[in-house]
């Protein structure tokens, strides 16, 4: 019988990724993996620097309570874009004119921030990868969660291959679990780098 998964504070630490993958790698069958995925609750890093009623708190609410994977990704992507807008407004003079341009896309915002070193390599890479997944859904509503290239995100890489997933069903469920971890890591790192974004109030219009 596999050991019980340790309750941990999810963080950006590589060691946390190792613990998660070692645990699931110790399970002997798809059925066991699915059972543990359904039983385990993520211990998220909300409450650490994230104020109730803020955009960051709404991000966590969406990520960890949303059952529809498409809705989760689209909403998380919109909130991340809002954070990028806030960082641009904070770092660039006359940013309002730039942000008003309809052709100033998510990708261009990311490239601008990266070109000025306002995002580190890990943040840039992970946000860019999230944007790729979102764009695949935009062009294919039936894009299979089993096809997510999660090994391209920070720290998962070769660790992802530690878990043997023998069926499409279990790979879908496992990928959703890992994606939620990835999004938690992403917001945690953004908030640590730019603490002021944790104070931004949530506005329903962001998700319209």
General description of the model:
The chain has a single domain (14-207), classed as Four Helix Bundle (Hemerythrin (Met), subunit A) (Up-down Bundle). The protein is built from eight helices and no strands. It has helices at 14-25, 30-39, 55-65, 69-91, 95-100, 106-115, 121-139, 168-193. Helix 3 runs antiparallel to helix 4 (69-91).
Give a short summary of the structure.
The chain contains 8 helices and no strands. The protein has helices at 14-25, 30-39, 55-65, 69-91, 95-100, 106-115, 121-139, 168-193. It is elongated and about 55 Å long.
Return the average pLDDT rounded to an integer: 79
- How many strand elements? 0
Structural class: mainly alpha
Number of domains: 1
* Main sheet record: none
Write the CATH architecture name: Up-down Bundle
User: What is the end-to-end distance?
Assistant: 47 Å
Beta-strand share of residues: under 5%
Write the H/E string, N to C.
Answer: HHHHHHHH
CATH class annotation? Mainly Alpha
> Low-confidence stretches at least 5 residues in length (pLDDT < 50)?
1-12, 42-47
- CATH topology name: Four Helix Bundle (Hemerythrin (Met), subunit A)
What spatial form do the alpha-carbon principal axes imply? elongated
User: What is the helix tally?
Assistant: 8
Radius of gyration from CA coordinates? 17 Å
- Residue share in helix: 55-70%
Properties at a glance:
mainly alpha; Four Helix Bundle (Hemerythrin (Met), subunit A); disordered N terminus
Topology:
Blueprint: H1 14-25, H2 30-39, H3 55-65, H4 69-91, H5 95-100, H6 106-115, H7 121-139, H8 168-193
């Amino acid at each position: 019988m596999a050991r019980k998964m340790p309750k941990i504070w999810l963080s950006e630490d590589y060691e946390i990724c190792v613990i998660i993958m070692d645990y699931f790698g110790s399970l002997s069958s798809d059925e066991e993996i699915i059972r543990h995925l359904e039983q385990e609750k993520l211990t998220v890093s909300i409450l650490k620097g994230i104020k109730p009623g803020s955009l960051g708190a709404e991000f966590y609410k969406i990520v960890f309570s949303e059952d529809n994977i498409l809705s989760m990704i689209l909403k998380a992507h919109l909130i991340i874009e809002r954070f990028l807008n806030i960082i641009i407004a904070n770092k660039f003079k006359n940013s309002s004119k730039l942000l008003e341009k309809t052709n100033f896309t998510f990708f261009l915002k990311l490239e601008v921030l990266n070109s000025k070193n306002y995002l580190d390599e890990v943040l840039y890479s992970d946000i860019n990868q999230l944007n790729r997944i979102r764009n695949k859904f935009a062009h294919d509503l039936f894009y299979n969660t089993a096809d997510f290239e999660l090994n391209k995100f920070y720290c998962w890489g070769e660790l992802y291959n530690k878990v043997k997933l023998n069926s499409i069903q279990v790979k879908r469920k496992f990928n959703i679990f890992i994606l939620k971890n990835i999004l938690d890591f992403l917001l945690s790192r953004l908030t640590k780098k730019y603490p002021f974004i944790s104070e931004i109030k949530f506005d329903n219009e962001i998700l319209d």
